[in-house]
C-alpha cells in the first residue's frame, strides 16, 4: 500500500510541475504576447515594444528556460522518490 501512495505522490508532484510550467508559458506567450500587448507597448526592449518582443522571442526563450527547469526539477523529484536512473 505504501508503494501505491508513493506512486500517487510522485505523479501528483509531476502534474503540479507540469501545470505550473504550462501556466507560466501561457502567460508569457498568450498573455504578454497577445492579450497584454497594448499595455506593454510603451516599454521598449531591444528596439521594439515589450509586447512584440514577447510575441516574437520572449515566449520562445521562456519555453527554453522552462524545459531546463522542468528537467532539473524532475531529476530532483526522481531522486526523492528513488526512481532516478
UniProtKB/TrEMBL annotation:
Q: State which residue ranges cross the membrane.
A: 17-40, 52-72
Report if keyword Membrane is assigned.
Answer: yes
Keyword Transmembrane belongs to the record: yes
**Positions of the Sodium symporter small subunit domain:** 8-84
Checking Pfam families in the record gives:
DUF4212
Q: Which UniProt keywords apply?
A: Membrane, Transmembrane, Transmembrane helix
Q: Which domain of life is it from?
A: Bacteria
Name the chain's protein. Answer: DUF4212 domain-containing protein
Identify the species of origin.
Answer: Marivivens donghaensis
Phylogenetic placement of the source organism: Bacteria, Pseudomonadati, Pseudomonadota, Alphaproteobacteria, Rhodobacterales
Amino acid at each position: 500500500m505504501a508503494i501505491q501512495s508513493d506512486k500517487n505522490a510522485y505523479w501528483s508532484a509531476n502534474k503540479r510541475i507540469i501545470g505550473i510550467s504550462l501556466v507560466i508559458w501561457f502567460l508569457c506567450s498568450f498573455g504578454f504576447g497577445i492579450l497584454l500587448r497594448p499595455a506593454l507597448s510603451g516599454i521598449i526592449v531591444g528596439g521594439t515594444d515589450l509586447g512584440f518582443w514577447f510575441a516574437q522571442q520572449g515566449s520562445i526563450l521562456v519555453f527554453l528556460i522552462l524545459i531546463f527547469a522542468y528537467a532539473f526539477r524532475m531529476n530532483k523529484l526522481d531522486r526523492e522518490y528513488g526512481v532516478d536512473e
